C-alpha cells in the first residue's frame, strides 16, 4: 500500500467543483481508471495496490460496478459545472488491470463512453502484466475500443526480476506483445534499471530483448527506493545494496544510445517512441498540465487547477459510493508558486520543452548558465524553449532547482 495521502482541504460530500473554478469545457480531458489489485506485492512498489489478503471485505468481482458509481457521480459534477466533454485519452493503470476479466474493463470503458463520450481518435491504454495477457484477452480489449497496451516487462534477466520480486516469466513478455500486435493494438514495454545486483551487461541484455520485440514505445525508469517498501527495508538492513547513481547514469546513457540507434526518439526523460504518433498522449497530458479525472481508490484528479484525491482503500472507496457520496478524501488549489514549480518540473522533462516566457523574469537569467553547463540546448533556447540535452536529462532536478530557486 502507498504512503499517506496529502492533507489538503476537506472535499464536499457531493464532489461539486467550486463555483468560481475557471473550467474550460474546450480543454482536453483525460480519464484515469485505477485498478488496485495485484497477485503479489513487488518489493520496490509504492503504488496504491492490494493483494487478496489486504482487501478487508472489498471484492475484485464487484469492482467494476463500484467504479461505475463514481463515473455516474463525476458526470453529474461536470454537468453542473457545464464542463462535460468527450475524453481524449483513457488509461487503465494499477495495480494490474488485466487481473480483472477483460469484460469488466470493457464495462468500465462503456461507462466512460456513456457518461462523457470518447473522442473518435482517442488513445485508450491498458497496463498489463505479461502473465495475464492471452490472445483472447487482447482481442476482447480491442473489441471494447482499447487502442494501446503497456506491458510491464521490467527486465529480461531472471535474477533481476527476482530482485524486484517480479513473478512473471520473461518468455511471456514476447507472448503478450505478440497478442497485442495480433489484436491491432499499439504496444509499449516498460523497463526498470538499477535493481540490486544488476550490471550494465544485464541492462544491455534487457534493452536488446526489448528492441527484439520491436514495440512502438519503450519506457525506461530508474529504480527509486520509496520509504516503507520492502526494498527500502532490505537496503536499510544491509541485505542488498542501494542503487548506484553513477551506474544508473551509465544505464540511462546506454538506453538512450541503443534506442536512438534503433529509431526511437526520446520525447520525455524516461520515454521513447517510434515516431510522434506512438507517444503516450495520456502521459503527455499530465506533463502538459491539462485536465484529467482519476477514478478508483487513491486516484488523483486535476481540473482547471483544482486537485483532489480519493480515499485509498477499496473498502472505504466502495462504502463512500454506496452512501451516494464522493470518494474524494481532500482537495487543494495550489498557489502561484506551487503551480510554477510544477510547470517547470513537468514541462522541462518533455522534448517540446518549457517556454522561457512561462518563467518569471527573475528566473530567466538562469537559462544562460544552464546553456553554458551543457544542460539546455542552445538552439532551442534561442527559439524560446528550454529543452534538455542528454546531460540535462541526467541532471533534470538540478535544472529545475536553477529555474525555481
UniProtKB/TrEMBL annotation:
<dbReference type="InterPro" id="IPR013785">
    <property type="entry name" value="Aldolase_TIM"/>
</dbReference>
<dbReference type="GO" id="GO:0046872">
    <property type="term" value="F:metal ion binding"/>
</dbReference>
<protein>
    <recommendedName>
        <fullName>Heme chaperone HemW</fullName>
    </recommendedName>
</protein>
<dbReference type="Pfam" id="PF04055">
    <property type="entry name" value="Radical_SAM"/>
</dbReference>
<keyword id="KW-0411">Iron-sulfur</keyword>
<dbReference type="InterPro" id="IPR007197">
    <property type="entry name" value="rSAM"/>
</dbReference>
<dbReference type="InterPro" id="IPR006638">
    <property type="entry name" value="Elp3/MiaA/NifB-like_rSAM"/>
</dbReference>
<keyword id="KW-0408">Iron</keyword>
<keyword id="KW-0479">Metal-binding</keyword>
<keyword id="KW-0004">4Fe-4S</keyword>
<dbReference type="GO" id="GO:0004109">
    <property type="term" value="F:coproporphyrinogen oxidase activity"/>
</dbReference>
<keyword id="KW-0349">Heme</keyword>
<comment type="function">
    <text>Probably acts as a heme chaperone, transferring heme to an unknown acceptor. Binds one molecule of heme per monomer, possibly covalently. Binds 1 [4Fe-4S] cluster. The cluster is coordinated with 3 cysteines and an exchangeable S-adenosyl-L-methionine.</text>
</comment>
<keyword id="KW-0949">S-adenosyl-L-methionine</keyword>
<dbReference type="InterPro" id="IPR004559">
    <property type="entry name" value="HemW-like"/>
</dbReference>
<dbReference type="GO" id="GO:0005737">
    <property type="term" value="C:cytoplasm"/>
</dbReference>
<dbReference type="GO" id="GO:0051539">
    <property type="term" value="F:4 iron, 4 sulfur cluster binding"/>
</dbReference>
<dbReference type="InterPro" id="IPR034505">
    <property type="entry name" value="Coproporphyrinogen-III_oxidase"/>
</dbReference>
<dbReference type="GO" id="GO:0006779">
    <property type="term" value="P:porphyrin-containing compound biosynthetic process"/>
</dbReference>
<keyword id="KW-0963">Cytoplasm</keyword>
<feature type="domain" description="Radical SAM core">
    <location>
        <begin position="23"/>
        <end position="265"/>
    </location>
</feature>
<keyword id="KW-0143">Chaperone</keyword>
<comment type="similarity">
    <text>Belongs to the anaerobic coproporphyrinogen-III oxidase family. HemW subfamily.</text>
</comment>
<dbReference type="InterPro" id="IPR058240">
    <property type="entry name" value="rSAM_sf"/>
</dbReference>
Amino acid at each position: 500500500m502507498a504512503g499517506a495521502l496529502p492533507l489538503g482541504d476537506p472535499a464536499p460530500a457531493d464532489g461539486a467543483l467550486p463555483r468560481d473554478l475557471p473550467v474550460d469545457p474546450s480543454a482536453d480531458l483525460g480519464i484515469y481508471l485505477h485498478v488496485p489489485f495485484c497477485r503479489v506485492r513487488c518489493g520496490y512498489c509504492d503504488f496504491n495496490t492490494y493483494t487478496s489478503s489486504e482487501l478487508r471485505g472489498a471484492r475484485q468481482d464487484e469492482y467494476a460496478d463500484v467504479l461505475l458509481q463514481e463515473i455516474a457521480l463525476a458526470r453529474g459534477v461536470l454537468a453542473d459545472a457545464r464542463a462535460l466533454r468527450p475524453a481524449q485519452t483513457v488509461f487503465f493503470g494499477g495495480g494490474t488491470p488485466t487481473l480483472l476479466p477483460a469484460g469488466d474493463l470493457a464495462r468500465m470503458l462503456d461507462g466512460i463512453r456513456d457518461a462523457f463520450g470518447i473522442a473518435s481518435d482517442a488513445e485508450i491504454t491498458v497496463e498489463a502484466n505479461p502473465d495475464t495477457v492471452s490472445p483472447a484477452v487482447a482481442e476482447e480489449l480491442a473489441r471494447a475500443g482499447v487502442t494501446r497496451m503497456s506491458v510491464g516487462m521490467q527486465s529480461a534477466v531472471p535474477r533481476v526480476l527476482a530482485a524486484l520480486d517480479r513473478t512473471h516469466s520473461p518468455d511471456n513478455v514476447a507472448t503478450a506483445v505478440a497478442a497485442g500486435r495480433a489484436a491491432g493494438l499499439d504496444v509499449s514495454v516498460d523497463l526498470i534499471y538499477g535493481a540490486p545486483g544488476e550490471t550494465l551487461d544485464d541492462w544491455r541484455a534487457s534493452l536488446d530483448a526489448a528492441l527484439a520485440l520491436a514495440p512502438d514505445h519503450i519506457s525506461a525508469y530508474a529504480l527509486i527506493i520509496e520509504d516503507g517498501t520492502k526494498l527500502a527495508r532490505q537496503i536499510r538492513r544491509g541485505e542488498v545494496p542501494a542503487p548506484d547513481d553513477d551506474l544508473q547514469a551509465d544505464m540511462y546513457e546506454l538506453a538512450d544510445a541503443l534506442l536512438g540507434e534503433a529509431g526511437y526518439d526520446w520525447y520525455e526523460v524516461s520515454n521513447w517512441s517510434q515516431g510522434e504518433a506512438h507517444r503516450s498522449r495520456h502521459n503527455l497530458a499530465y506533463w502538459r498540465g491539462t485536465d484529467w479525472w482519476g477514478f478508483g481508490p487513491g486516484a488523483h484528479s486535476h481540473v482547471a487547477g483544482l486537485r483532489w484525491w480519493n480515499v485509498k482503500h477499496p473498502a472505504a472507496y466502495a462504502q463512500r459510493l454506496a452512501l451516494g457520496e464522493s470518494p474524494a478524501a481532500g482537495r487543494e488549489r495550489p498557489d502561484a508558486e506551487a503551480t510554477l514549480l510544477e510547470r517547470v518540473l513537468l514541462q522541462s522533462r518533455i522534448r517540446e520543452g518549457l517556454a522561457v516566457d512561462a518563467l518569471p523574469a527573475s528566473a530567466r537569467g538562469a537559462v544562460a548558465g544552464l546553456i553554458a553547463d551543457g544542460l539546455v540546448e542552445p538552439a532551442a533556447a534561442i527559439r524560446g524553449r528550454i529543452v534538455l540535452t542528454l546531460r540535462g536529462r541526467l541532471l533534470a532536478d538540478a535544472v529545475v532547482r536553477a529555474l525555481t530557486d
